What we know:
The structure holds two protein chains of two kinds. By secondary structure, chain A is an alpha+beta fold. Chain A has helices spanning 3-7, 10-20, 25-35, 47-56, 79-103, and strands at residues 23-24, 60-67, 70-77. Chain B is mainly alpha-helical. Chain B starts with a helix and ends in an 8-residue tail after the last strand.
Amino acid sequence: MQSEMLKGHLDGMVLAVLDAAPTYGYAIVEALRERSDGVFDVPEGSIYPALHRLERAGAVSSKRDRVNGRERRVYELSPQGRASLRSRRTEWAAFATAVGSVLGVSGA
Amino acid sequence: VNEIERYVAELEPLLRVGARYRKRILAEVRDHLVEAAEVAGRPDGAASGRDAVQAFGVPAVLADGFNAEAALRSWLRMPLVMAGGCAAVAAGMVIAGSTGSGRTVSAPLSAQIVFFAALLLSQVAVVGVGRGVSLTLAQRGRVSVAGHDMAIVRRSVRVSAAALMLATVLWVTSVLLANQRGALSSAAMVVVAIGVMSAGAGAPVAWVLRWSMLWSGSPDDAEPATSSAGSSVGVAGWQVGERLVGIASRHPVMACALAALGGAVFAALRSETGLPPSLPWAGIEAVVVVAAFFWVGPMLGLRGIHTRPQRPALP
């Protein structure tokens, strides 16, 4: 998939992964790849500026923690991030339906 | 591992961020790459490292992402730092003023002019800081910030930094002149006041200069000439300043008249020589307020940037 198409949605998808459980950068990349059946194959590094951006906006918080015997920076969704995710889901559903209708894609 | 360390070493000089943030970025990148190489688990360790590095992305592109985020964080913090600088300069003046000898000593006209010019510049600095802080607060909770909003924040910070620096030089000069004339009683307190003012203005201005130089020519410097009304959505509760700005930009004549009147009354009230001799100062204040509103106003987005959307021409 074109990474340009993905760029505008990366923040929302990161929030969705963190909605399941707090986790760290590498695990987020793996979750994105797994959930998309390998379709979203973005440069792995691009996840970090997105995480830092979300952290600045207060959508996620982070702290150093021990995961699998290793020190990691673990990210967690904040209540603000949860609210943001809800609104992104609603917006996306409306957008996808509208585009699907225009393109004539069934089941959109 | 060598591949990973090489990658980290290549990334490090490309990062235009503070030391603490740089350390955090490099630690996260290294952790990620090491884990990716281990998970790949190829017999050839070097090949695993190479794969991990390749999947991670080009260092220059990655650095751009971090740099843009760091620049945004810094610019959004600067108005608050500048506000601290203004407060420190004001505190310095209060300290200097508290050492008044109590004797009636009339300052020479040159000292009065210097004092008055410092006062005017301080007002410009305060307005610039106020505009920057208002817009910064309106961005709270927003993941991305509109380019024209950032442009106004940058200009506000630069205007207030320049005005604060000049005002401080003039304040210090006026304090020294007053001290020379014997209007201030404690030399030690004068030194403290000058120190507080210099540090208060110097530290934030140096910080602004540092970041301005670090980010000169950055792609996000593009500043569109106009912006649409209501672009600064922000989070409810942080928009009071932006609403006032919206009112001022929609009613420039009324805003200008109120500001000029307020400035003139302020100039007249602070005069110790009675109303008639203070009128020229009040007049100058009013003229300067009007001139600043028209000259500095557009830079701060106080005037002329909220344009009405044009109707498309009918065929």
